[in-house]
Amino acid sequence: MPEGSWFCNDCKSGKKPHFKDILWVKVGRFRWWPAEVCLPKNIPEKIIRMKHEVGEFPVQFFGSKDYAWTYQARVFPYMEGDAKNKDKMGKALNETAERFIALQAEKEMRQLQEDRRNDKKPPPYRHIKVNRPIGKVQIITADLSEVPRCNCKASDENPCGMDSECINRMLMYECHPQVCLAGERCLNQSYTKRQYTQVEIFRTLSRGWGLRGVSDIKKGAFVNEYVGEVIDEEECRARIRHDRIIDAGPKGNQARFMNHCCQPNCETQKWTVNGDTRVGLFALEDIPEGQRNNGLCVRVSVSQNQPSKARERRELKEGKKKVLVKRKPQLEVTKEREDGCFSCGDGGQIVSCKKPGCPKVYHADCLNLAKRPAGRWECPWHQCDICGHEAASFCEMCPSSFCTQHREGLLFISKIDGRLACNDHDPCGPDLTQPHPDYTGHVACVTIAK
């Protein structure tokens, strides 16, 4: 038990219960029970006349339909998934889960209607078809003698197609119309000919504007090219440090409306087109029309198949190169802040932990915060989930953490990737894990900079 005063994260952040919130409520010696915060005008008159203090609010319990007055210290939020442990309150938890889903849908619909009133059209941008260089950046155009030639022929059934053995396609090179032996029948010129999948911009329920396919999209199909302003590191300054960045904010095409998600149905790939590097969006799976509410989405990462590496592999295969020349190792740059939320991985409006050395950021909604915390705020990764003391062991996939007294049996080392994970995120499960070679009775710890 914590010594002295202890405050939960909701109290620290100033979060208060709201009407129509679903909570776990403790009354007297009875067990914790799910209930909904009620509007005073919707409860019986005799309940209103019951003795209660300032700061108390009425709740209605699921299952029994009884009412009671309670206060913040006797409640904690109901979370999605709590209904899995039905035990002896199966009927009440079934009602709770149904009501929780209905309230979530109602909240999303209100948010959607409000967004539509305030934002009936997508944000303004200038539509362009090709990348526009800004500043010192130049669009590279290779000499025809430097453009690689594949072995496909015009007589092939699908020359340079997705199911062919086109070496250019394998190495993410686009065939040049004047070099490829297949000529006009070449199927590996999607960037140059802008052979995009037919898509439309639409308003999602919870992620603003999105992109979706008008018809079915096959796995591996070229969806669209990510087009925008190409800027160098000097131009972007405080942004992510790379040689070149494509900014689709002020100028771009329909690909700029594709959302990010943790379970993407599309991926980004770097292709070499006429000597220049272009970024394309490709389907990871067969995507039926209207499969997802959020439409087409992609993970926040870019394929690591760099053109130079692909060129080296091709030269080795053709016998033009004998030895791979290793590049000088670059100094590792430690990020001051992560790019996406540690809970869901998405970007957007995020709050950062103020503890020195901690780069983690979160969405306020992912931490159940009613508003963005002010002042010196530390994320829940640094407090034990059981007692609130300083944490010593951490799940590497979510904010769960534990102190030295409570960590045993709650964290496991995954057989798949060797990372430390809690019961909710361990890919193998607690029965399929094995201890670390250095395991001496306590689970291994993840240390953070002080």
Task: Produce a short descriptive summary.
The chain is an alpha+beta fold.
Question: Could you outline the blueprint of secondary structure elements for this entry?
Answer:
Elements: H1 9-13, E1 22-25, E2 33-37, H2 45-48, E3 57-61, E4 67-70, E5 75-77, H3 90-118, E6 126-127, E7 132-133, H4 167-170, H5 190-193, E8 199-203, E9 209-213, E10 222-225, E11 229-232, H6 233-236, E12 244-247, E13 251-252, E14 259-260, E15 266-273, E16 276-283, E17 297-298, H7 307-318, E18 351-352, E19 361-362, E20 393-394, E21 401-402, E22 411-413, E23 420-422
Subcellular location: Chromosome; Nucleus
GO molecular function: histone methyltransferase activity; zinc ion binding
Protein name: Nuclear receptor binding SET domain protein 1b
Question: Can you put this structure into words, describing what you see?
Answer:
By secondary structure, the protein is of the alpha+beta class. It folds into four domains: 14-116, Roll (SH3 type barrels), CATH 2.30.30; 196-318, Beta-clip-like (Beta Complex); 337-377, 2-Layer Sandwich (Herpes Virus-1), CATH 3.30.40.10; 383-450, Herpes Virus-1 (2-Layer Sandwich). The chain has seven helices and 23 strands. The chain has helices at residues 9-13, 45-48, 90-118, 167-170, 190-193, 233-236, 307-318; strands spanning 22-25, 33-37, 57-61, 67-70, 75-77, 126-127, 132-133, 199-203, 209-213, 222-225, 229-232, 244-247, 251-252, 259-260, 266-273, 276-283, 297-298, 351-352, 361-362, 393-394, 401-402, 411-413, 420-422. The strands form nine sheets. The protein has a five-stranded antiparallel sheet with strand order 4-3-2-1-5, with helices on one face. The chain is elongated and about 90 Å long. The two termini are 25 Å apart. The model is unreliable at 302-310, 320-326 and 429-450 (pLDDT under 50). InterPro entries: AWS_dom (IPR006560), C5HCH (IPR041306), PWWP_dom (IPR000313), SET2_Histone-Lys_MeTrsfase (IPR050777), SET_dom (IPR001214), SET_dom_sf (IPR046341), Znf_FYVE_PHD (IPR011011), Znf_PHD (IPR001965). This is Nuclear receptor binding SET domain protein 1b. It comes from Hucho hucho (huchen).
